[in-house]
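Weekly modeling sync, notes
Attendees: S.R. (lead), two postdocs, one rotation student

Agenda item 3: backlog of single-chain predictions. S.R. asked that every request posted to the team notebook include the full sequence so nobody has to chase files. The rotation student volunteered to paste the first one in as an example of the format we agreed on. Action items at the bottom.

Example entry:
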Amino acid sequence: MTQACDSPIACGVMTRTWILPVLLVLCGSVFAAGRVLSGSPGEAAALLLGFVLLAGVTSPLVFPRSIGALEAQRRSAVDGHPIVYWRPGCTYCLRLRVRLGPSARRLHWVDIWRDPEGAAVVRAANDGNETVPTVVVAGRPHTNPEPGWVREQLRPSA
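Predicted structure, as returned to the notebook:
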């Protein structure tokens, strides 16, 4: 059963976040089909697997579940954990997510393509630009910080 989008904007955002991963799978399928037709099924399988893995990495699936900016601000006020404003397909966001490892789940993640308030926070912090990742720690925004620095922000102060 499919679920209808609540608004045209929500449908557009949902579609936009999946364009790159879907295109990668489609391209990989075309290239793999070509390898099968040329008599190299093993090469085709490896090629398709590579494209599927790349699609998975560029999809929203590798990020912790996003919440709205207002909810992230509320939670951050309670637990003191940073808020990460990100968007799917952003290589810098992916770099931050991967380098944080399991500790990324302790952060509050806001997908600016799904949350207009989150996009507004990022624009306010970056002279009108939607530059991500923007990490907010104790109410102060930091644009594209080093993952090690973000990890340090999760440690309790001594």
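Discussion: group reviewed the output briefly. The longest strand covers residues 83-86.
Action items: rotation student to repeat for the remaining queue; S.R. to check formatting next week.
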